[in-house]
Amino acid sequence: MSELTKLKIAEARDALRKGDVTSAELTEACLSAIEGAGKLNAFVHDTSEIARRQAEVADSRIKDGDAPSMCGIPLGIKDLFCIKGVPSQAASNILGGFKPEYESTVTTQLFGAGAVMLGKLNMDEFAMGSSNETSCYGNAVNPWRRGNDDEALTPGGSSGGSASAVSADLCLGATGTDTGGSIRQPAAFTGITGIKPTYGRCSRWGIVAFASSLDQAGPMTKDVRDAAIMLEAMCGHDPKDSTSADLAVPNFEAMLTGDIKGKTIGIPREYRMDGMSDEIDALWAEGRKMLEDAGAKVVDISLPHTKYALPAYYVIAPAEASSNLARYDGVRYGHRAKLSQGDGITEMYEKTRAEGFGDEVKRRVMVGTYVLSAGFYDAYYNRARKVRTLIKKDFEDVFAQGVDAILTPATPSAAFPLGMEVEDPVQMYLNDVFTVTVNLAGLPGISVPAGTDKQGLPLGLQLIGRPWEEGDLLNCAYALEQSAGFVAKPSKWW
Amino acid sequence: MSIDIETAARVAKLARIRVEEDELPALAQEFNNILGFIEQLQEVDVEGVEPMTSVTPMRLKRREDGVTEGGMAKTVLSNAPDAREGFFAVPKVVE
């Protein structure tokens, strides 16, 4: 049975259509894999009853010949997605007990296509973090270890549970969300594929908001083909999200030819950071060679404002978060603090928010409050938005010069031990140094596993595409994947 | 720009997050670390640059200003920590 959970989405789809396997069988195999993987702490809310019901419906659809690609495919869903009647608390105590009366558009589309939900996945609280250590459910753990060393490593964040679950074959794919790198960094840390589409491709409706101008959902899967299949099911225009793009969604899978002859790939010199490890540098050089060998033209490019992306992000994201998270006031949903005699409404707000939010969330809400406060709005918030304009222009300039995609490392290091860096928030922020520019510029970006470090941990490369050209980007990633030939899997210890 | 304890207390108040007196110095220090990091933005020449309002050059969709859903007070209140007689209940606001 356990072999079934190792299937990729494309393989499972074909087996389901041929009648070689049923969704019920796939679903049971995943549910028992999840049951045996408590040590990874990837799944945090059990929805096995829903899964079994959905699998049954999927099987009868398949029998009737009405089977979209995702029909019968068991998935994990990040806790940030609202699911009707299922705990959806963004890994925060402030949403303890919250069961939405509505359903996110992305999951509505996935379930409409026949996908099966196995459970809700661990993540950083409100998607704020890069190591899954800010979760109210405790840390998610990376299935990968350094050789025989049994020290627990982070699966990355914020979509740490999604990354851990896909990497450990607990599900065939998972939803993630990415505000500064939260799909691509955990994908790189766990040897899987993760794509953040162009801002506006996926509806944000029903996804708990962190920084609305940066948040995008995307798939986390075992390979590029699966990412193409699952992304297509997640995308599409939604009148309920005013920033959702009214554009046709192409058949991404059909664009995976592996032929990138004549494409121009840019290598941005500003991404060569001081103190970057030799291994990351070597992997980047190998990636360049692979794309050249596949027939692409590789050119050096400059994105001059790269250095300012992280500081701009750490103004804009907290500013938007402070505004978005103002809704957690103990009135309409979630936690309300017990009040003392004589406490009024202000005490209710202050105590509720002090009890319900974790330290990192409080920090960001307060930093956001500060940069938006009278006297600092221009110096910080408006300046950061101007810098964001410049960062986006950097990309527009290189695309105008004919660059089709940009190759960078996905992360500055391999997965690090849990409990390492939480002492210094700024140190943790540096994890997103290669990914955050993509959110600021609204572009699609994909992380592809491309090799391992000397301790055997996976490393990823990132490709950044032109806006709305996810199909081309996926094809480029497919070519890179084929050359890299990354097939390593973590050995089971959990 | 350095944040003192008084400013930290004011920000916590604005954010409606209770921070105990003895936690304020550590909080002020954290703010200073983070603001020190974002201080780099002051180096950038932003003369004549428009602050970004939308990352994609699309015009926000308009819709008809009409009721699309409604009449579901019970559903709306279903997650409230305290709901009474069809309303959200809160501590006394007006004396």
Automatic annotation (TrEMBL), chain A:
<dbReference type="InterPro" id="IPR023631">
    <property type="entry name" value="Amidase_dom"/>
</dbReference>
<keyword id="KW-0648">Protein biosynthesis</keyword>
<dbReference type="GO" id="GO:0006412">
    <property type="term" value="P:translation"/>
</dbReference>
<keyword id="KW-0067">ATP-binding</keyword>
<dbReference type="Pfam" id="PF01425">
    <property type="entry name" value="Amidase"/>
</dbReference>
<dbReference type="InterPro" id="IPR036928">
    <property type="entry name" value="AS_sf"/>
</dbReference>
<feature type="active site" description="Acyl-ester intermediate">
    <location>
        <position position="182"/>
    </location>
</feature>
<comment type="function">
    <text>Allows the formation of correctly charged Gln-tRNA(Gln) through the transamidation of misacylated Glu-tRNA(Gln) in organisms which lack glutaminyl-tRNA synthetase. The reaction takes place in the presence of glutamine and ATP through an activated gamma-phospho-Glu-tRNA(Gln).</text>
</comment>
<comment type="similarity">
    <text>Belongs to the amidase family. GatA subfamily.</text>
</comment>
<keyword id="KW-0808">Transferase</keyword>
<feature type="domain" description="Amidase">
    <location>
        <begin position="25"/>
        <end position="474"/>
    </location>
</feature>
<dbReference type="InterPro" id="IPR004412">
    <property type="entry name" value="GatA"/>
</dbReference>
<dbReference type="GO" id="GO:0030956">
    <property type="term" value="C:glutamyl-tRNA(Gln) amidotransferase complex"/>
</dbReference>
<feature type="active site" description="Charge relay system">
    <location>
        <position position="78"/>
    </location>
</feature>
<dbReference type="GO" id="GO:0016740">
    <property type="term" value="F:transferase activity"/>
</dbReference>
<keyword id="KW-0547">Nucleotide-binding</keyword>
<comment type="subunit">
    <text>Heterotrimer of A, B and C subunits.</text>
</comment>
<keyword id="KW-0436">Ligase</keyword>
<dbReference type="GO" id="GO:0005524">
    <property type="term" value="F:ATP binding"/>
</dbReference>
<dbReference type="InterPro" id="IPR020556">
    <property type="entry name" value="Amidase_CS"/>
</dbReference>
<dbReference type="InterPro" id="IPR000120">
    <property type="entry name" value="Amidase"/>
</dbReference>
<protein>
    <recommendedName>
        <fullName>Glutamyl-tRNA(Gln) amidotransferase subunit A</fullName>
        <ecNumber>6.3.5.7</ecNumber>
    </recommendedName>
</protein>
Automatic annotation (TrEMBL), chain B:
<keyword id="KW-0648">Protein biosynthesis</keyword>
<keyword id="KW-0436">Ligase</keyword>
<comment type="subunit">
    <text>Heterotrimer of A, B and C subunits.</text>
</comment>
<keyword id="KW-0547">Nucleotide-binding</keyword>
<dbReference type="GO" id="GO:0006450">
    <property type="term" value="P:regulation of translational fidelity"/>
</dbReference>
<dbReference type="GO" id="GO:0005524">
    <property type="term" value="F:ATP binding"/>
</dbReference>
<comment type="function">
    <text>Allows the formation of correctly charged Asn-tRNA(Asn) or Gln-tRNA(Gln) through the transamidation of misacylated Asp-tRNA(Asn) or Glu-tRNA(Gln) in organisms which lack either or both of asparaginyl-tRNA or glutaminyl-tRNA synthetases. The reaction takes place in the presence of glutamine and ATP through an activated phospho-Asp-tRNA(Asn) or phospho-Glu-tRNA(Gln).</text>
</comment>
<keyword id="KW-0808">Transferase</keyword>
<dbReference type="GO" id="GO:0016740">
    <property type="term" value="F:transferase activity"/>
</dbReference>
<dbReference type="GO" id="GO:0050566">
    <property type="term" value="F:asparaginyl-tRNA synthase (glutamine-hydrolyzing) activity"/>
</dbReference>
<dbReference type="InterPro" id="IPR036113">
    <property type="entry name" value="Asp/Glu-ADT_sf_sub_c"/>
</dbReference>
<dbReference type="GO" id="GO:0006412">
    <property type="term" value="P:translation"/>
</dbReference>
<dbReference type="Pfam" id="PF02686">
    <property type="entry name" value="GatC"/>
</dbReference>
<dbReference type="GO" id="GO:0070681">
    <property type="term" value="P:glutaminyl-tRNAGln biosynthesis via transamidation"/>
</dbReference>
<comment type="similarity">
    <text>Belongs to the GatC family.</text>
</comment>
<dbReference type="InterPro" id="IPR003837">
    <property type="entry name" value="GatC"/>
</dbReference>
<protein>
    <recommendedName>
        <fullName>Aspartyl/glutamyl-tRNA(Asn/Gln) amidotransferase subunit C</fullName>
        <ecNumber>6.3.5.-</ecNumber>
    </recommendedName>
</protein>
<keyword id="KW-0067">ATP-binding</keyword>
<dbReference type="GO" id="GO:0050567">
    <property type="term" value="F:glutaminyl-tRNA synthase (glutamine-hydrolyzing) activity"/>
</dbReference>
